[in-house]
Write a structure and sequence with these properties.
7-stranded antiparallel beta sheet, single chain, mainly beta, Jelly Rolls, 239 residues
Amino acid sequence: MMNKRVHSFFVLFSFILISLMSCRNNTDQGFDLSGWKELEVSAEDLVNWKLLGKGQVFNIFNGQTCLMEADTTQGVMLLGPDHYGEDIVVKYKALALTPASVIVTMLSAGDTTSGNTLTIPEGYDGSMGLLTQNIGNYFFAFKNAPHGANPFIMKNPGSVQEASAARPDGMVAGVYYDIEVGRSGGTVWLSIDGKKLVEMQDQQPLKGGYVIFRLRGTAGLKAACLIRDFKIYTKQEKN
C-alpha cells in the first residue's frame, strides 16, 4: 500500500515538474514575423556597438556578450549602429549576472528634431536625463524589481509611462530569458519567454530610430548581464 502511495506521489510530482518546465520553455513564437526580414547580430558585431556611460563590454565563450557597469556609474549602454523604421522587433536572450541588475531596451531612439539622427553629448555619463528628456524613444524596462517596479513601457521625451504590467516578471539572476520588444506602427509591446507582459497603443507614434540596450544596478550594487542570440526584424518593403 505504502509503495503504491509513494509511486503515485512520484508520478504526480513528475507530472507537475514537467508541466512547470513546459510552461517555462513555452515561447509560443511571440509576434508573427512572417514576411519580416531577419538580421542576426553576432557576438562579434554586438561587442562593437558603441559603449555609452561607464562600464565595459566583452565576449566570452559560446557566443555570449557581457555588459557590465563600472564601480562608479550612472548606467551603461550599447548603441546600435543602424537606423530602423517604424516597424521593428528585437529578440535576444538575457541572463542577469547580479540580482541588482535592471535591464532596459530602447527602440526608435532619435533626436526630437529628426528621428534620423541621434546626438550623444561628448563625455555622456549614462544618466537618465538624456534618455527621458532630450531624445525620443520607447523605453522597455524589465527585471526591474530591484527598482521597486513592474515591467513597463515609457515613451520619451517626457518620461510618460504608457503601460505597466500588473505584477513583477519574476526574472532572477543566473537564468536565461527570451526577450522580445517590438513596435508595428503604433502598437508597442514587451514579451518575456513568449508571454506578452505589456502592450500599448500610441496614437502619435514616434518615427524610426536606433536600438539601445541599457543596464543599471541599484543600492550601490553593479549591474552585469550576458546577452546572446540577438536578432533584429524589420518589415519587408512591398514592391
